[in-house]
Amino acid sequence: MYTKQEASKLRQEFWTSFGHYMRPVLSSEGERVNWINYRTGVPGITFKMDADDTHATIAIIINHPDLDSQQRVYDQFLQLKNMLQEQTGESWIWEYAIEDADGNLCCRIGATLDNVSIFNNADWPKLITFFKPRLMGFDAFWNMAKAGFEYL
């Protein structure tokens, strides 16, 4: 078991390492990207990567404060589901109207890798191998689809 400080330090070391690993990787449009803090540029749509002591997740979070707008955004993603699957190379898990950590309703579209720990350096290659292709696939998808979400 780790203290809060030790756990925080290990998390920071992993994300710093991942950031260094991804730094030379350009976006699908050939531009430099801060992969750790990937910005969608559309309010109410965020992209999140997370890892803890049991699993890792990568997800699109739809957290628009207006539930009708949130529904429209989710429906738009559903219309583009095949494109997302093609770009990421897999089918992601689709969750509608779930509660986030703050108790607010959101929608999540993502993938999970079980049986890995950010606190185990030996798992870091597995985490990187999980995150990188999905992040790159989402970036390719988003560069094609973003315009359709900007006015919802």
In words, what does this structure look like?
- This protein has one domain (4-148): Yope Regulator, Chain: A (2-Layer Sandwich), CATH 3.30.1460.
- It is built from 4 helices and 4 strands.
- It has helices at 4-22, 67-79, 81-88, 124-145, and strands spanning 45-51, 55-62, 93-99, 105-114.
- It has a 4-stranded antiparallel β-sheet.
- A hairpin with a 5-residue loop joins strand 3 (93-99) and strand 4.
- Helix 3 (81-88) packs across helix 4 (124-145).
Q: For the report, how would you describe the main beta sheet?
A: 4 strands, antiparallel
Shape: globular
Average predicted confidence as pLDDT: 95
Main-sheet strand order equals 1-2-4-3
Count of folded domains? 1
Outline of the structure:
By secondary structure, the protein is an alpha+beta fold. The chain is 41% helix and 21% strand. Strand 1 (45-51) and strand 2 (55-62) form a beta hairpin.
